[in-house]
Design brief:
The protein is mostly helical. The chain contains 10 helices and no strands.
Length: 239
């Protein structure tokens, strides 16, 4: 009786399945290392964060970090890139309709404030990198990619507001974005020292709520179109 030979399709299917399993395992390992590195670098900074701490937190091995990321610096760059990516992903899910640019701008300002509050690692990682004068992120090939969507979203809201006569037509999206970020970022990143300096608890819920309204009003006041016939007194600049 002749014996049947294995079907080629079955063999190829098994090989493809094993390949997918290996790929998923590799992705899971990289993701685990990235999450662990984010926590370690956010707590200790680039200089204080050690590879062995990260591999232990990731339940992995030092060699796997070097295999997937190459070096401690490249891992740190990957962490910063991923931090910006996650911020952009969150911002992309902000619901805007562009029919009410005033409310849309409030939504963008409040999103930024809320995201900084809910993701302290974003603040501490950027503080750490700024201590190094941005020398690591300057080597990133993706850094500029992450700024474009955020600025573009702000530009669309400002343009719609200008068309509706609610906002000044001479606004630059970058400037309004930086203003919003600065007012939120400085408060969150310095709240502990400022609480001692001012003699107030800047982490109190009412203090957070007050500052959210304050920066929202400040940004809206800056962008609002002046009453008809009254010059705004500012040099004209393109958006």
């Amino acid at each position: 009786m002749a014996t049947s030979s294995p079907r080629r399709g079955t063999s190829n299917g098994s090989t493809a399945k094993r390949s997918r399993v290996r790929e998923m395992a590799a992705q899971a390992t990289q993701e685990s290392i990235l999450r662990a590195a984010t926590k370690i670098f956010a707590k200790h900074g680039f200089a204080g964060g050690r590879i062995e701490q990260i591999s232990k937190a990731a339940k992995s091995h030092d060699r796997m970090i070097y295999y997937y990321f190459g070096s401690k610096e490249e891992l740190f760059i990957a962490v910063i890139e991923d931090t910006y990516r996650r911020f952009n992903d969150a911002e992309a899910h902000v619901e805007l309709n562009l029919d009410n640019p005033v409310e849309d701008l409030k939504t963008l300002v409040r999103f930024m404030w809320t995201y900084y509050r809910q993701h302290p690692e974003f603040i501490t990682l950027l503080n750490s990198e700024n201590l190094h004068r941005g020398k690591h992120i300057s080597k990133s090939l993706r850094a500029r990619e992450y700024s474009s969507p955020a600025i573009s979203l702000m530009a669309r809201v400002l343009q719609r507001g200008a068309q509706a006569g609610a906002f000044r037509p001479d606004l630059r999206a970058r400037d309004v974005y930086l203003m919003s970020a600065a007012l939120a970022y400085f408060y969150i990143s310095n709240r502990f020292t400022l609480s001692a300096f001012l003699g107030e608890d800047l982490e109190a819920p009412e203090a957070f709520a007050y500052w959210e309204e304050y920066i929202t009003d400040a940004v809206l006041h800056h962008v609002s179109a002046p009453p008809k016939g009254k010059p705004n007194g500012r040099a004209s600049r393109s958006a």
